[in-house]
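ARCHIVE CARD
CATEGORY: sequence design from structure
SOURCE FIELD: tokenized fold
FIELD CONTENT:
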């Protein structure tokens, strides 16, 4: 999250918006965002609806795998970055730049 916050200007310059989604409560997400200095929204998916729909829910643990989804202006998923690579915003930023040129 800190890396995405550090690169927020790059995403905005590419015409992209950054959002986080967590299965934690709104209150916990707010405290987490404040502790990291994150200014972009972190949405709460307490019911696991989004995590399930995007295929990142670990049902047994009721947690989500870390993933970054780049979604274009038409709502089409253009890139999915999973696991440790999702922490680094470079891949998502590159895709956003390419989409901005389309």
């Amino acid at each position: 999250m800190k890396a995405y916050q550090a690169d927020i200007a790059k995403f905005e310059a590419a015409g992209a918006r950054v959002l986080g989604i967590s299965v934690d409560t709104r209150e916990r997400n707010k405290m987490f965002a404040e502790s990291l200095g994150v200014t972009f929204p972190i949405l709460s998916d307490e019911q696991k609806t989004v995590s399930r729909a995007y295929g990142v829910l670990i049902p047994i643990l009721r947690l989500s795998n870390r993933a970054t989804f780049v979604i274009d202006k038409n709502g089409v998923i253009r890139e999915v970055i999973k696991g440790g690579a999702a922490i680094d915003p470079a891949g998502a930023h590159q895709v956003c730049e390419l989409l901005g040129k389309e």
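CARD ANNOTATION: The first strand starts at residue 20 and ends at 22. DSSP finds five helices and six strands in the chain.
SHELF: design records, drawer C
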